[in-house]
Amino acid sequence: QTRRAPGLLSDEEEAKYAQYAFERLQDEGGYIAKNCYSLTRSEEVAHVHAPGVWDGESLLGLGLSAYGVFGSKMYQNTLELKDYERSIVSGNRPIHRAHLISARERVARTMVFGIKKLGISRSRFREQHGFEVTLLYGDIVRNLIEQGLLIDDGETIRVPRSKYIYADDICRAFFLPEHQTMMRGHLTRDKIDSLVAEHA
């Protein structure tokens, strides 16, 4: 039997408290939810880094293991200081690995990041990719609407306010098959308890 870490919330308790905080900050604090992670009181002080990259803006990665994005190219710098220094001194870029984003990855990325930002504009999707979002994702969108996880008002496919804290999980429905097992964002409490017990 695994030992539960003292004071660690269950998944249900964590979700309840997170939902309460999101609701109260919006209802009583005057905050606006910008994505599934953050709220702001003013557009003037809204975080611009992640949403910018999520919208396809370029990002210059500087420093150890930093990542960058330029158009359809992603890269990550070397992880070791000595390798980084050697590259810089010799006049080379300290790139450890790179990836060319395919057309299907770009489309999936629009869906995943759009859900994280709590809504996808149908017209913007059409402008970016040249076809209707429901042509490729109609069945998935309909299924998520039936589950109460998305709303489609004809122009925007969006996450309902009561589900904002789950957007990072909802977006996984749009992962490409080869990415389904990658980057699991959340560990179950049983898994955390098991890890705690292993290192106790």
How would you characterize this protein structure?
The chain is 41% helix and 14% strand. It contains 8 helices and 8 strands. The chain has a 3-stranded antiparallel beta sheet, with no helix packed on it. The chain has a 3-stranded antiparallel beta sheet with strand order 6-8-7. The protein is globular, with a radius of gyration of 20 Å. The protein starts with 10 loop residues before the first helix and ends with a helix.
Tell me about the largest β-sheet: 3 strands, antiparallel
Structural class: alpha+beta
Low-confidence stretches: none
What proportion of the residues is helical, as a percent range?
A: 40-55%
Average pLDDT level: 86
DSSP E strands, number: 8
Strand content: 5-15%
Number of helices: 8
Task: Encode the helix/strand succession as letters.
Answer: HEEHEEHEHEHHEEHH
| Molecular shape | globular
Side-by-side strand order of the widest sheet: 3-4-5
Oligomer: single chain
Concise description?
With about 200 residues, the protein is α+β, with helices and mostly antiparallel strands. Helices cover about 40% and strands about 15% of the residues.
List the defining traits of the structure above:
14% strand, alpha+beta, 200 residues, 8 strands, three-stranded antiparallel β-sheet
